[in-house]
Design brief:
By secondary structure, this protein is an alpha/beta fold. The protein has one domain. The protein is built from 9 helices and 10 strands. It is globular and about 45 Å long.
Length: 293
């Protein structure tokens, strides 16, 4: 989601319309047939409660920073982690970023990385993978063919909203008998008060689980207020939210994994980054290091 990386396929764009960020409390309902997706055939999930993860891209000292962060897993918005060495105990999880990534070479590379595969990145945004629901459904069988556990496309917002992008995708997947093993979502909080932000994130995740009855991977989250310009809380406030939100996420049994945005502290990303060049931890980074794996 880095501002500096928003033009590059394989990395997210750190921009949102205010209306997308505001929609964190959504209607809760049941979708007929979604429970069946939870028990669809697929490789077994990872053993143990290793939830703590981070998104990353290359910067000076990235491999050392990843090791020092204590992350149990990480991803790069790509099918590979070229330039990043996985430390002992940390798993790389590949992603099929968008329609252009659905090809034998990229899918084959992803299959070599492990048992889990992340789906399309923010298909509901024009500056991300920008896919229609029908296009995503048409390509989905090729992701299923890898035999890996599949995370749904990760929408930017409104994941539990009836008739929203993800809702229509999941209805289409159910109708076609397609396999989705877990729901992948992103969340950025515009309320910088720690208690309120944590409560809003928890409410959002509860609504998503109530609607789809599938495990959840929260693969991008932090505090950021979007508008004509993007604003962030001070590092100490961001760190307080990180600590409190991780405590909340660790107690939610239906949240299988989470990934903070992001490992690098780069210009344009405000107070969200964990490490500066040379693997120097920020205030937020030290909070992340202290969090349990």
């Amino acid at each position: 989601m880095s501002i500096l990386h928003k033009a590059r396929q394989g990395a997210p764009a750190f921009s949102r319309q205010p209306k997308l960020v505001a929609a964190v409390l959504v209607a809760v309902g049941a979708v007929v047939g979604m429970v069946a997706l939870a028990t669809a055939a697929g490789p077994a999930g990872p053993a143990g409660p290793a939830k703590k993860g981070v998104s990353a891209w290359i910067f000076p000292g990235v491999s050392k920073a990843l090791a020092e962060s204590g992350a149990s897993w990480y991803y790069t918005w790509s099918s590979n982690h070229v330039g990043i060495t996985s430390p002992p105990g940390a798993q790389f999880v590949p992603m099929i970023w968008g329609a252009g990534s659905v090809n034998p070479a990229t899918l084959g590379q992803a299959k070599q990385q492990g048992h889990a595969l992340l789906g399309f990145n923010e298909p509901d945004l024009s500056n991300q993978s920008d896919m229609t629901v029908s296009q995503a459904l048409r390509l989905w069988p090729q992701l299923m063919a890898t035999g890996m556990r599949l995370g749904s496309p990760a929408v930017a917002a409104n994941a539990a909203t009836p008739g929203g992008w993800l809702d229509r995708f999941m209805r289409g997947a159910t109708a076609r008998g397609y396999r989705v093993n877990f729901i992948t979502v992103h969340w950025y909080g515009a309320d910088f008060a720690t208690g309120a932000a944590v409560a809003q994130l928890e409410s959002y995740l509860q609504a998503i689980y109530a609607r789809y009855h599938l495990p959840i991977w929260l693969t991008e989250f932090a505090l950021a207020r979007f508008g004509a310009t993007t604003s962030f809380p001070p590092e100490r406030q961001q760190a307080a939210f990180l600590t409190a939100s991780i405590s909340m996420l660790d107690r939610l049994t239906y949240v299988q994994r989470y990934a903070w945005f992001a490992l690098p502290a780069s210009p344009g990303d405000g107070s969200t980054g964990l490490f500066r060049s040379g693997a120097v931890a920020t205030t937020v980074g030290r909070a992340f290091e202290a969090a349990p794996r």
